[in-house]
Amino acid sequence: MNATPSILRPRSNRTAVLVTSVAVTVFLALSHAAPAHAQHDHAATDSVAAAMAAHMEMSPARSGNKADSARAASIATVLRTAILKYRDVDVAIADGFRQFAPQLKNQRMYHFTNYGIAFRNEFGFDASRPTSLLYKKDSLGRFVLTGAMYTAPKRASADDLDKRVPLSVARWHKHVNWCLPPRREQSRWTDTKNGRPVFGPLGVWTRSECDAAGGRFQEELFGWMVHANVFEGTDPGTVWGDDHMMTGDETMEHRH
């Protein structure tokens, strides 16, 4: 896999995409780092789930058909073959995939992102070319490859997403309604109110609350993303399911 693809767009566009890709990985790491107390506190877990749901937009579901099922299975097969070598995380690193926010411990999922590929994926789709690799850690602290993540531009329509990975099989997600701290006050990322974070993936999710906190409200932060857990099983619900999937009451289905 080529970690330094040819760039056909102006450098300013390339820079913007790469900066966004870095930010995506940072915040994905944050959103996958569940608070320790939530593991033993059902009320806290429900609060975290509600916050994550409020910050998530899901692609529309479509009725399934044999053609979609076959296409999704083909994508999974191509991906599984393409990233098999990355079971050795050192090989992934050598090919340009970088772990971001390694200082965040005990993440449920670790993202290793190739920013050159992230840029290319803004303009096209190749099943063998995921933006990020997804790892868990085993009991010995070793990285275990579970699959990968595809990305698409935030401007992509439902039809655009369906052309990449069928919406009858997978649900793409996008991070929305975020409150960010003022640009010159990055130390405020840890601010809390009534025991809850103010900023980030578990923070407030309305413009009025964000304004009251002196933050910067972003209705739509990043592009579309979808996980493909190709080493977790072969059932489509396992391959294309992740902890961003929401039920009707907007609670999170933890599938990792």
Question: What would your notes on this structure say?
Answer:
It is globular and about 50 Å long. The two termini are 27 Å apart. It is 32% helix and 18% strand. A hairpin with a 5-residue loop joins strand 4 (132-137) and strand 5. Residues 1-40 and 245-256 have low confidence and may be disordered. The protein is α+β, with helices and mostly antiparallel strands and 256 residues long. The protein has one domain (11-239). It contains eight helices and ten strands. The strands form three sheets. A five-stranded antiparallel beta sheet has the order 2-3-4-5-10, with helices on both faces. The chain has a three-stranded antiparallel beta sheet with strand order 1-6-9. Strands 7-8 form a two-stranded antiparallel sheet.
Which helices and strands appear, and what pairs or packs with what?
Elements: H1 11-31, H2 42-54, E1 56-58, H3 66-83, H4 89-94, E2 98-99, E3 110-113, H5 115-120, E4 132-137, E5 143-152, H6 158-164, E6 173-180, E7 192-193, E8 196-197, H7 207-212, E9 216-220, E10 224-228, H8 236-239
Antiparallel strand pairs: 1-6, 2-3, 3-4, 4-5, 5-10, 6-9, 7-8
Strand content: 15-25%
Number of domains: 1
Q: Could you spell the SSE succession in H and E letters?
A: HHEHHEEHEEHEEEHEEH
Characterize the biggest β-sheet. 5 strands, antiparallel
What is the SS-derived class?
A: alpha+beta
Uncertain runs are: 1-40, 245-256
Distance between termini?
27 Å
What is the total tally of β strands? 10
Strand order of the largest sheet: 2-3-4-5-10
What's the rounded overall pLDDT mean?
80
